[in-house]
């Protein structure tokens, strides 16, 4: 006889109330779970639709404990949270996935790179930097990439320095430097691993970034890479997550070099921007898959239903305030367009306000439509008279 589940299936505690949390809450509702969100922003995007929101910071130990007491399992939508309190709660018997140990490895960019090296996972050469000096940077060699050890995201906390004269733009904080990789493509592989060790991967996707903004601009699914590169990328991604003993869904960002070498760039121990298209384009989307994984349920099929292109909707440059959407009707008139807005009450330059997935059985048409959408829709700010 199969195990009998109560209803609701589980009470999910979620640290972080942003857009990833919002889409996770939607998936939880479909799967028969209730959700409690912890976020410092009242009426956060996830809190708007969750069962309940606790207003508190990501490093507020008392609020995290309140969340754990009220839920069956804890998870998170961002890395910059109090992993020490999560470790204490784990020791007390609370279910937390991904586990605090894996989170601590990934939170610090240096320990993340050391973990990759220690486990024989290919990555760019790197070096720790406690106090940046021109001499250390020159000895390591240009061009290089400097990354702050903690707290960076969406290109923040990253400096690409091409020559010694660029040292003036370095980040004067504890960090690491790594070899600048001349990538032919940047790809990502989503890997899900549940509490029983079952693993599933999604086909690699190609990530395109707008110069200067360091935020994912356009995603193409599946990536235009040959089968051998795809197989290697998936194998490396699986090895990374299994080495972490990760539970949940993980976004593994990789470089494919011009020589066909595949290198891990970074690990995201959570649902990931590179998987938003799965809501429409795959049998099981990344958010439901994450919940299946942390609840110990069978993982869903990752089969692709349609090629897709996905683009982030960013706040218009030099506009801040209450959002207004321009070009909405023209955008929705394009066949295959799927619009997701995140419920954020204020727009700022380049803030993620939503995303659009475009489905088309022809990958090249999907990309062309996405570029058309990018030129059609804009999220700006309301003019104040």
Please summarize the sheet with the most strands: 9 strands, antiparallel
Strand content: 25-35%
Distance between the termini: 67 Å
On the 0 to 100 scale, the average pLDDT is 95
Computed structural class: alpha+beta
Number of helices: 11
Radius of gyration: 21 Å
The CATH fourth-level homologous superfamily of the largest domain: ATP-grasp fold, B domain
Relative helix content: 25-40%
> Into how many domains do the coordinates divide?
3
The top-level CATH class of the largest domain is Alpha Beta
CATH architecture of the largest domain: 2-Layer Sandwich
How does this model look, in words?
27% of the residues lie in helices and 28% in strands. It is an alpha+beta fold and 385 residues long. It has 3 domains: 11-96, Rossmann fold, CATH 3.40.50.20; 125-179, Dna Ligase, domain 1, CATH 3.30.1490.20; 183-381, D-amino Acid Aminotransferase, Chain A, domain 1 (2-Layer Sandwich).
Summarize the structure.
By secondary structure, the protein is an alpha+beta fold. The protein is built from 11 helices and 20 strands. It has helices at 19-30, 61-70, 83-91, 100-107, 109-118, 134-140, 227-244, 278-281, 286-294, 328-332, 363-374; strands spanning 11-15, 34-39, 52-55, 73-76, 95-96, 126-129, 144-148, 158-161, 175-179, 183-193, 199-201, 205-209, 216-221, 248-257, 262-268, 308-314, 323-326, 337-341, 352-359, 378-381.
